[in-house]
Amino acid sequence: MEKVREIVREGRRVAKEDPRRVVHSFKVGLVLALVSSFYYYQPLYDSFGVNAMWAVMTVVVVFEFSVGATLGKGLNRVAATLFAGGLGIGAHHLASMSGPTGEPILLAIFVFVQAALSTFVRFFPRVKARYDYSLLIFILTFALISVSGFREEQVVMLTHKRISTVIIGGLSCVLISIFVCPVWAGQDLHSLLASNFEKLSFFLLDFGDKYCEVVENDDTKEVDKRKKDFDNYKSVLNSKSNEESLANFAKWEPGHGQFRFRHPWKQYLAVGELIRQCAYRIHTLNSSYLNADNKVSIDIKKKLGEPLRRMSLESGKAMKEMSISLKKMTKPSSSDLHVQNARSASKSLTNLLNSGILKEVEPLELVSLLTAISLLIDIINLTEKILEALHELASAAKFKNKIEQPLFSEKQKAKSFVSLRSIKCHDEHVVTIIEDDGNNHDTSKNDNRSKEVSIHEKHEDGDTHVHARCVSCGHTIVCDVVECR
Amino acid sequence: MEKVREIVREGRRVAKEDPRRVVHSFKVGLVLALVSSFYYYQPLYDSFGVNAMWAVMTVVVVFEFSVGATLGKGLNRVAATLFAGGLGIGAHHLASMSGPTGEPILLAIFVFVQAALSTFVRFFPRVKARYDYSLLIFILTFALISVSGFREEQVVMLTHKRISTVIIGGLSCVLISIFVCPVWAGQDLHSLLASNFEKLSFFLLDFGDKYCEVVENDDTKEVDKRKKDFDNYKSVLNSKSNEESLANFAKWEPGHGQFRFRHPWKQYLAVGELIRQCAYRIHTLNSSYLNADNKVSIDIKKKLGEPLRRMSLESGKAMKEMSISLKKMTKPSSSDLHVQNARSASKSLTNLLNSGILKEVEPLELVSLLTAISLLIDIINLTEKILEALHELASAAKFKNKIEQPLFSEKQKAKSFVSLRSIKCHDEHVVTIIEDDGNNHDTSKNDNRSKEVSIHEKHEDGDTHVHARCVSCGHTIVCDVVECR
Questions:
Q1: β-bridge pairing B452-455 and B430-434
Q2: What is the C-alpha to C-alpha distance for residues B251 and B242, in angstroms, rounded to an integer?
Q3: Which residues span the membrane (chains A, B) (predicted)?
Q4: CB neighbours of A176 closer than 8 A, spacing ≥ 6?
Q5: Which residue in A22, A29, A284 is closest to B281 by CB distance?
């Protein structure tokens, strides 16, 4: 009884985690019941007979969770069946010419050679990645067709029926999976990447604060909570195989929503790899910071705390903004600011270090402290690389140019209205300035919206220039301030 | 033509990488040709008829590369077919009682409910990991049996034939895969772990030397070579899924060679996870050391070089010894010494740091230098943890106690013969002392070989004690030197 209740609980958890699983189960049941009608409905049974079982078999094996996987498997299966069917008929003809004693021997040799060769080809890495299933079906169909041909009189008829039922089964799977609550592998890959960004941002947003306060509230409860919050990023470490299989499936998918047929899935993998590189650093930072035998004294933490905190916070914000812009499929413009802030924080930290602040620190404290700093700098470098890769992805995938309302509120409070003259970027784009509040106040008379720049550093009274990035080509431009309201 | 030549070249590479692949291909061809004889040989065809195709199908689908995978799939398939066959007959009987109009409707409902439910259960993580294939076959067989029962008069007979052929097909796969050049997943997991150890050792053995000489020969050729040598460890970063699937297969395998049926595969996964943790650190060390903007001056490297080099060298030696003792399935006794040496090197480095050597170093140099040191210390800590886990694995797997000839020759040159009195370890084991050269010179009169200790620190004239580890319980004991030759 307890066991049953546990299974029900587990079932609820599985369904809650991803409700599309329940829908998928219904879809499979539906298609299978539909295809079974080949047996029940007399006219259909008259034309296909026992071969109808191939439709049932195809549905069970081909219907996968995502559209891409189903399409890939379905197309692979149909193509392999067609090809192997043709070859099987040929083999059967060739064998039957050699008389009743030679035929079984020749057939056995054909089956042996074909199976051994195809099995070997399945070990080729490129074949294994994409066509493993085709080859399985190829071996199967060839053996069945050539061998049953030995007993059946009308091999061509048999093959024809078998292929038709396979096509019917495959087609019903594909149609149902596309038109009834589709699950797109591409969409899943997209969301996986966005959530990976978010997981890293969770760590980075909190790390600075926790690192600087770690000695004060060191009770186990706090440590447990921190550990749980931080552990989120660990799933990123092993996401490679998942990302790769999703990208493989996504390649089969037709255009859907904002994803085109030839969406740049390769770029997704590149960004994913960089995120994973960053996760390795975070993992090292987390373990050596949690397990540090030589705790760094509060004194030195207070002195270095401000830039250290800002470095971690700003790279966390950049990650968060990238996650959001990926989710909304807009160009990641607001992250640039945060990366620049993190860079400038790391510069002020370097200046602080150069000012001789380290002279009084114990060597063992130094090791722990400087490792954390060095890893943070490494993480900021990677964040910049990730941002670059995401910019590439965004332009390859033709993400929208819309400038998002910045996420972090302190920036909105501090926004300043700046009026700037039209300027030219390196590539001779005429750029028009819009304000930081995201409402696209056009201050120049140039109407060409595609050549706007967004202001990336707040203008403060007294400064004579601000930094801006050309939306067309991505260059950073320094603009003179004309008027400040 | 060029394309064909390329395929042949690729084929040769694939075969050379693992010659067992060629053998496997032959085995598959052989079994398939064998099972096809069901069609050719009249008496066999008389008893099974078209159902013989199920044997062919089972062979194609079940025959996997390793024994464990084949056994797991075969058993899963037979069990699922039996169970689904029984249920299918039941469903058929139940439906046939409701008359000719009700029967197809009821059958369709059964198929729908069974398929939807089983598909949902496949999403349960624990089911997915081990029984995914069973459930696929369960859905398939249930649908085919209950539905073809609608047309066939003798469902029980049909089911009986189908199950027999599935069993025959499965059995031939299992027998051939076990008795003809078997590929054991357990053996593969074992070798994978040993090679992962080796990959990390390659990096660590060279890192110290290369780090200390990096500025002198900085030509691109050297950098390229170093990069290639070092890149070996990267495959360890993503070995998790491979290790897990091998362990899953290995669980199905019967005892073979030195592996028992219930070999501690879980412990293998634990050791593998720790190796991966170490690889993350090595990856960080490698990237931040190769990309260091602030190169550390030769001057300071020379001062710290000796202990730094020893730390990396000794942990690399420990890894190498662990790799060898895992390969030979002996207890990893000689690694203990190297870990202790690495520890003592890290202690002398710490002393050196405390002596004020860092006072003259530029802060930015410091960041780069101390990060490398801190990561090395981290790696040594992990090496010790890995060694512990390997000791556990060794005693769980009942590895031999034989003390290996130490691998690294410089130790043999420097060996010193020490004669010690018998002492007692904490747990009251009487321990007998053997020398460092691995030749088991017994200097006491105690004959109990299982209670030996190996000497872990070389005795130098003037010292009055050496460290030893009790082989029975693992405790480190300090022994007084009685006589020194």
A1: parallel
A2: 15
A3: 21-40, 52-71, 105-124, 131-151, 163-185
A4: A27, A30, A31, A63
A5: A284
How far is residue B420's CA from residue B257's CA, in Å, rounded to a whole number? 38
Q: What is the per-residue pLDDT for A430?
A: 43
Task: Give A61's contacts in chain B (Cβ within 8 Å).
Answer: 136, 140
The H-assigned helical ranges of A66-184 are 67-96, 99-121, 125-148, 155-179
Distance CA A77, CA A166 (A): 8
Strand order in the sheet with A476-484: A418-420, A476-484, A465-470, A452-455, A430-434, A423-424
Kindly report each contact of residues B152-161 with a partner whose C-beta sits within 8 Å and lies 24 or more positions away, as own/partner: B155/B88, B155/B89, B155/B92, B156/B89, B158/B51, B159/B85, B159/B88, B159/B89, B161/B48, B161/B49, B161/B51
Is the separation of the CB atoms in A460 and A416 below 8 Å? yes
CB B201 within 8 A of CB B105: no
Q: How confident is the model over A355-399, as pLDDT tens digits?
A: 877 777 777 788 888 888 888 988 999 999 999 999 999 888 888
- CA A342 to each of CA A317, B85, B129: distance values in angstroms, whole numbers, following the listed order: 10, 65, 42
Pairing of strands A423-424, A430-434: antiparallel
Record the tokens describing residue A443, joined without a space: 């201050």
Q: What sign does the CA torsion over B146, B151, B156, B158 have?
A: negative
The Cα–Cα gap between A206 and B299 comes to: 39
* Alpha-helix residue ranges (DSSP H) falling in B122-154: 125-148
Element holding B258 (H helix, E strand)? none
B5-45 residue pLDDT tens: 999 999 999 999 999 999 999 999 999 988 888 777 777 77
User: CB pairs below 8 Å between A and B: how many?
Assistant: 229
What are the phi and psi torsion angles at A421 (to 5°)? Answer: -80, 160
Closest-CA residue to B453 (of B418, B440, B464, B462): B440
What's the gap in Å between the CA of A324 and the closest CA on chain B?
A: 28
- Regarding an ipTM greater than 0.85, the answer is no
Q: Tell if the CB–CB gap between A36 and B107 is shorter than 8 Å.
A: yes
SS (HEC) of A94-124: HHHCCHHHHHHHHHHHHHHHHHHHHHHHCCC
The more confident residue out of B44 and A413 is: B44
Domains delineated in chain A? 2-179 (no CATH), 185-396 (1.20.58.220), 410-484 (no CATH)
- Kindly report the length of chain B: 485
Q: Which residue's structure tokens are 């051994």?
A: A116
Which pLDDT score is estimated for A404? Answer: 54
Residue of chain B minimizing CA distance to A141: B57
Q: What is the pLDDT of residue B370?
A: 85
Q: How many CB atoms lie within 10 A of CB A139?
A: 28
